[in-house]
C-alpha cells in the first residue's frame, strides 16, 4: 500500500515537471516572433500557467494530505498488526509450551501405565506359576494319598482275611472239641467244612488272636483230642471258658 501511494506522488511530480518543460519550450518559440504580440500572449499564458500551477499545487497538496493520512492510518494499522503479531507469537509460544508439557505428561503417563501393566502381568505370571505349582503339588499329594489308601485297603483286606481265618480256626476248634460256644452264641454247627456264619463270640476270639499270633500258623494240620483241648486255646479264651 505504501509503494502505491509513493508511485502516485511521483507520477504527479513528473506531470508538473513535464508541464514546465513544455511551457519553457513554447516561450522559447514565442520569443522568436513579434515582441508585442508575444508579450500579450505571454501574459495570458502566464496567467493560464499560474492558474494551472495553482490547480496542480492544490491537487498535489491534496495528494500529499491523502498520502499522509493514508500513511498515518497505515502506520497505525501496522503498529496494531505488529502488536497483534507479537500477541499471537506469545500465544503461540504459550501453546507450544503447553503442548510440550502435555506431551511430556502423556509420555510419563504412558511409561507409568506400561510399567504398571508389566508389573501386573509379572504378578499374574508369578501367581499363575504358583497356582500351577500348588496344583502339581496337590495332584502329587492326592496320588500319594491314593497309593497310601490302596496300600491301607490292601493291608486291611489282608488283616480281614487273617482275622476271618483265625475266627474260622477257633470255631473249628470248638466244634472239633465238642465244647459249647460262648454264652449267647448260636450252637448250630455248619454242615460242611467251610466258613461258618458270624457268631457273637467272634469279638472275643479276635482279641484272643491279637494276644497270641502263633495259633493260626500252628493249627492248619492239627486234630486235637477231647482231653487236650485246653492247650490249643489262648490264655484269654481259657479264662472265658472258666467263667
Descriptive notes:
It comes from Canis lupus dingo. Keywords: Coiled coil. This is ZW10 interacting kinetochore protein. Residues 181-243 are annotated as: Disordered. Residues 71-162 form a coiled coil. The structure is a single chain. By secondary structure, the chain is mainly alpha-helical. It has two domains: 2-94; 153-242, no CATH class. Helix content is 80%, strand content 0%. It contains five helices and no strands. It has helices spanning 2-30, 35-177, 202-211, 214-218, 235-242. α1 (2-30) runs antiparallel to α2 (35-177). The radius of gyration is 71 Å and the shape is rod-shaped. The N and C termini lie far apart (146 Å).
| Mean of pLDDT | 73
User: How big a fraction of the residues is strand?
Assistant: under 5%
Helix share bin: over 70%
Shape type: rod-shaped
Kindly name the structural category.
mainly alpha
Order of H and E elements? HHHHH
> Between the first and last Cα atoms, what is the distance in angstroms?
146 Å
Total count of domains: 2
Largest sheet: none
Instruction: Report the radius of gyration as a whole number of Å.
Output: 71 Å
Low-confidence stretches: 183-243
Number-wise, the strands total 0
Count the DSSP helices: 5
Coiled coil: 71-162
Protein name: ZW10 interacting kinetochore protein
Keywords: Coiled coil
Organism: Canis lupus dingo (dingo)
